[in-house]
Amino acid sequence: MESVKNTKITVEVLINAQLEKVWEQFNSPAHIIHWCFASDDWHAPAAENDFREGGKSKTVMAAKDGSFSFDFEWIYTKIEDLAIVEYILEDGREVSVQFEQTADGIKVTETFDPEQENTLELQRAGWQAILENFKKYVEQN
């Protein structure tokens, strides 16, 4: 596997919606359960979000057939209303999510430290798929 030391991965989408709606649907457990998975054979049966700096949050991601599931957990390190969310994953990796108003919509950019088990491209593809699922959810609701 390629070296992931000092490497960050960035994924982004452009969403045709109001910033407040994008922000709310990205950070609210009532919405997270509807979009936080990479493919149609997965789902997010539960989400908890203590949305404050120092708050701990969790999303359960699971295969619909029951064959596999895991808890995706983090602690918030920075929240700037309608602009930035930063957190540290349970394994120590850092994630930054930026929300930017553009002439064409809201640009959501996620930058994260990769884990050591999967290739960078596989991780990029998985996170991009989740972000695309988020875009689809927001634009349809």
From TrEMBL:
Residues 16-139 form the Activator of Hsp90 ATPase homologue 1/2-like C-terminal domain. InterPro entries: ASHA1/2-like_C, START-like_dom_sf. It holds the Pfam family AHSA1. SUPFAM superfamilies: Bet v1-like. It comes from the Bacteria. Belongs to the AHA1 family. This is Uncharacterized protein YndB with AHSA1/START domain. It comes from Arcicella rosea.
